[in-house]
Structure formats: structure tokens, C-alpha cells
Design brief:
about 270 residues, alpha/beta, two-stranded antiparallel sheet, binds phosphoenolpyruvate, about 40% helix, binds manganese (II) ion, 8-stranded parallel beta barrel, TIM Barrel
Length: about 270
Amino acid sequence: MSAMRVVVRVGRDSAVTPVDFGGGAPVLIAGPCAVEDLPMMRECAGAARIAGAGLLRGGAFKPRTSPHSFQGLGAEGLSILSEVRAETGLPVVTEVMSCSQIGPALEAVDMLQVGARNMHNFTLLSELGRSGAPVLLKRGFMATVEEWLLAAEYVLTEGNSRVVLCERGIRTFEPWTRNTLDLSAVPLARSRSGLPVIVDPCHATGSRDLVGPMCHAALACGADGLMLEIHPDPARARSDGDQSLGFEDFRALAADLAETAAFFCSHRQGG
Ligand code: PEP
Ligand code: MN
């Protein structure tokens, strides 16, 4: 049985152009893995806007596997995001890892991401529910679809229905990709929850060569959007450079994806 479809609008004030997830047209989210400094964030925002992205991403608080890796700029990262948001009019999504980060993040950005490592952080999910802000909830890499949807319920039961789900790959026995992109979870989670579901092919594959094909496949199976990591110079990225697209590749891919999206949208309306 299919649940009623939810449309999630993102854009907290008139400084940005709001964007709808689940409204029919897939939403493109683009930006670096981590906010590194203001100039690179400006460059990424420019590239995202030109390519037709509806939302800008950038991590200020980074949940790194190793405590010795770059952890993000924290509060300084938030103020960079806020500045670039005002300059471009693009709404912004950033990750929060703890309840204390919610307030400061919501003064800077429009949507809060819960990363794969925090999908089971129920205190954080409930607090995000009470915040009323749009939430981008990534699937934990060891979580079943049912566990993922139950995590979403923690936000929903606080009266916040503004949840967008993000499939970002799960851990399997396959070592040649960073994770295994579970595309069957997209139509499954969409129909069971009614929530918009987007796909993050960068964290799913770990490798930029695989990002394009997985983007097209995600649109073909009904994804409500895509989240891509981009960087002015991926080889020098402070995190996730191997899976980040340079601007040239990104622009070309975004143009191809617009055609794929148009094809599948008209196909669904006709069929
Ligand atoms: C991210 O989006 O930068 C991120 C850390 O993703 P995930 O939580 O899916 O690993
Ligand atoms: Mn990343």
C-alpha cells in the first residue's frame, strides 16, 4: 500500500529561492564535502548555481572515521555558508552531529542533514523533530530500510513532517566500491513512507567515475533528487576528493541529467 506523498519545501526566508522535494522535478544538491574556506565555497556555489542546482551543500561539522582527519571548520564553516547563501540566494544544507549544533546551524542554513553515522542518534532525531526544520536523513550504512524509516518516525512523531530521505549506499562484502548503492530502497522507501527520497552516489561509490551512471540510474528509479560532491580541485580536497567531481565534469553531468530527468518525468506522466 502506498502512503500519501509529502512535498518538503526548503528555504527559510526570502533571501533564498525555495526548492520543493517531492514536487515532481528532481532536485540537484551540490557542493563540497567540507567547507574549507570562503573562496572555495564561493567557487562551488557559483558552479552549483550555473549547473542548475537547487540547494548548496557543505559540511561544517564532519563526522570523520578517524579523529586524526580534518573535522571541519565548525562555527567558522557555518558563517561561511551563511555568507555564500546570502550572496547566491541558494538555500543550504549542512550536517549536524549533536543537539547543541542545531540552533547555530539553523541561523546559518535552511536544512539540516543527519549523516549515516548518526541515523541511530534518537536524541538528535527527536530534537530535530521539535525544531520543525527540514531534515535530510541519510540511511545508516548498516541500517535496513525499516530501521531507516523508523529513524524518520522519530522526527515525524514530534510533529515535523519535513523529512527527506537519502540513500547513500550500505556496507556489503564488495570492496571495489566504498559502499553498495541500494537503488531498490528508493522506490521501496518512497512508497512505504510517502517521503521524498534522494540519492547520494558519491558516498555510495567512493569513486567519481561511477557517479554519473548511478545518477542516471537513480533518476530512472524515481529518485526525488541527487546530492553530489564537487570541488574546485578534487585532488587537493581535505575530504572525499576521490568521489568529488571537478567543475567541468559536474557541468557536463548536470546537463545530461536534465535530459534524463525530463525523459523520465514525461514517461511517468504519460504512463
Ligand atoms: C556527507 O554527506 O558528507 C557524509 C559524511 O555522508 P554520510 O553520512 O552518508 O557518510
Ligand atoms: Mn563527504
